[in-house]
Amino acid sequence: MSEYAVAGRDPLLLLSAVELARRIRSRQVSAREVVEAHIAHVERFDETLNAVVVKRYAAARDEADAADRRVAAADSSEMLPPLLGVPCTIKESMGLAGLPQTAGLVARAHVHASEDATTVARLRAAGAIPIGLTNVSELLMWMESDNRVYGRTSCAYDAKRTCGGSSGGEGASVGAGGAPFGLGADVGGSIRIPAFFNGVFGHKPTGGLVPATGQYPLAENDALRYLTTGPLARRAEDLGPLLRILAGPDGRDGACVPMDWGDERRVDIAQLVVLDVREPIAMAASDALETVREQAIQTLARRGARVKKVALPRLREGLQIWSAMLEAAGGKTFAELLGDGQAVRGGRELMRWALRRSPHTLPAIGLALLERVPKLLGSSSTKYVALGLALRAELDEALGSHGVMPFPPHARVATRHGFALLPPVRWGYTAIFNVMETPSTAVPMGLDRRGLPLGVQIVGGRGRDALTIAVARVLEDAHGGWVPPPLWFRS
């Protein structure tokens, strides 16, 4: 706190959402002061990062003033909303009534949300105040949050590097301190990779725990359970309270079911079984990321958890399994979504891109071409779906009701802009757990020698979200959690 004060920044920007809400309720600070501190900070860093691409400052200030009036009028017995007056940011693909919802697609540049997405509505009902919408990758399917509508967003720790995708704007916003938490979605790592690249916490819930109603594009059929909505936060103590607000059926998302996912405050770390699994997916994780994985295991062992070495060789086929199972779920193709209903021709669009005439980014065009691969594989695709189902059963058995698995969140730390394509397979470490439908929490584990975030993801059994969040809190306590990035200390 003192180091931050010396740097001339408001210490409110260090606090969790839970702590900010407590101080607002107890009148130690006003909601207006908290919101203004975060808006000022976004204005300070966002010329460099381009994370918060739709500003909502006037409405946020009005809502903060209303929150302060509500606090002032409340008596000691009144139960105020748990996030009353706390600012946040929201992924642009989530509906927030009256604001753009383009998903980074030029053809949707005119589209505004007619209503709040279910999760956005739940956060607002809990008193949270969105200060803006954050950038995404084009149609939410790549690790660069870059599109022809808003441009490119950079990593909070190095503007020459990617912030990740598709919730990259959320990662950069929260990682830079612009909001204590944000709302993202994840079908292949889109919460966990931006959380990892930007040094914050991110939770991908169990499939079917949180409704996706009001997002665009929306997955279909089984893929609705692979697409998960969850929080990114600078402090681990916010993950559980946020998930309690977000979780539960809304009567509109048919994949979302009632589920008792536990309570992280009641988890006894000494009762956990920690699976020590070292299986590369497509390519081996860096030595630095393997080291922090081992550090996480050692920390849990010191708290009394039992460590068990386990081999899960089917994980090595993770990318093929993810691709095959997602394709088998059916629904609109990526090429159809990219063309806003009429499938783009990938080869033609690639030539247009080379002539600088395409409204699409190169990764989006590449994905439109590559999504045909599972269909071309034929029987091989069926084989990988079967492998995936077998792996899911194997994970269920290995994790049981008390198991957690520390695992790399990616093969490398945040790459330089444009280099995520070389090779385009490093995200297999997260993608596989979407089709496994298991919860997974990204946890920051300090910085490397270049000042870039290191991290680990903690995987748990389906419906055991409380375990992975409890482990995140233990690791934050032991290893420091989020570290303010260098841009904090610039004038």
Using only C-alpha atoms, the radius of gyration works out to: 21 Å
- List unreliable stretches of 5+ residues: 1-6
CATH superfamily: Amidase signature (AS) domain
**Secondary structural class:** alpha/beta
**Helix percent band:** 25-40%
CATH top level assignment: Alpha Beta
What is the global morphology? Answer: globular
- Helices, by number, come to 18
Q: What do these coordinates show?
A:
This protein has 491 residues and is of the alpha/beta class. It has one domain: Amidase signature (AS) domain (Amidase signature (AS) enzymes), CATH 3.90.1300.10. It contains 18 helices and 15 strands. The N terminus is likely disordered.
Task: Please describe the topology of this protein.
Elements (H helix, E strand, L loop, with lengths): L1 H5 L10 H9 L5 H19 L2 E4 L1 H17 L13 E5 L26 H8 L3 E6 L11 E2 L3 E2 L1 E2 L2 E5 L5 H9 L4 E6 L5 H6 L3 E4 L18 H4 L1 E6 L5 H8 L26 E4 L10 H16 L3 E4 L8 H11 L5 H5 L7 H9 L7 H9 L2 H5 L1 H21 L3 E5 L20 H9 L3 E8 L5 E8 L4 H15 L12
Parallel strand pairs: 2-3, 2-8, 11-12, 11-13
Antiparallel strand pairs: 1-3, 4-5, 6-7, 8-10, 9-10, 9-14, 13-15, 14-15
Helix pairs in contact: 3-4, 11-16, 11-17, 13-14
